[in-house]
Structures are given as C-alpha cells and as structure tokens.
C-alpha cells in the first residue's frame, strides 16, 4: 500500500482496494455506506486482458487524466476536475475470481466533493459497458 501526496492510502490491501476515509469525498465498489457504494464492472464474457484494454481505452478517452501505475490486476490514475482543477485518485482492481473490476475514487483535498467522484466513475462505467456491449454483440 502506498500513499499519495496527502497521505491517503492507495493500492491493494489483502486483495482489496484501500477503504475510503471517513470524509464524504470518496466512493468505492467496496464501501459499506450505500450512498458511497457503486456497482463493480463485470467482464464475464471476456478475458482480463481484453477488459483491461477496454478500460484503458476508456480512461484515455477522458480529459485531464494521467495513468500513474499499472500492473496485471491494478490501475491507478489521477484526474483533475474542470473548474478548480482539484486532483482525484482513482483506482481499479481486476478481481479474476469473480471477473469484476472494483474501483475507488477519492478527492485529495477538501471535505466533500459534491458528487464529482461518483459522476466521474459513472461516466467510466457507462463508457466501459457501452464498449463491452458492442464487442460481445459482435461475437
């Protein structure tokens, strides 16, 4: 587990993403609070390599994003909001056992994010589903 510049835990801990802090500026597929919990992305009909390729294409299609770390089952990106250019850390973990991509996004500064992490991840989710739908429909 590493920490970002503000000391926020990043990376995998016992095969899971780090838990969100108590502040309401983080959402995750592994969060217990339903207001901050999101659904994981499924890649049931493809390999982990295909799913990772699609997710990376989606991430690269987003503005103001930089990939910081990438491994076989993990991606860490930093993205900035449009208006104030706040930095956010987003992480993606490929769970090969259940073929789901778990993800987490947290704002580096401030107490609340006014839903920006959730909206950004919803956009990633929608683009991933759209691309995987077209691929599985062609096969």
Automatic annotation (TrEMBL):
<dbReference type="InterPro" id="IPR010865">
    <property type="entry name" value="DUF1499"/>
</dbReference>
<protein>
    <submittedName>
        <fullName>Uncharacterized protein (DUF1499 family)</fullName>
    </submittedName>
</protein>
<dbReference type="Pfam" id="PF07386">
    <property type="entry name" value="DUF1499"/>
</dbReference>
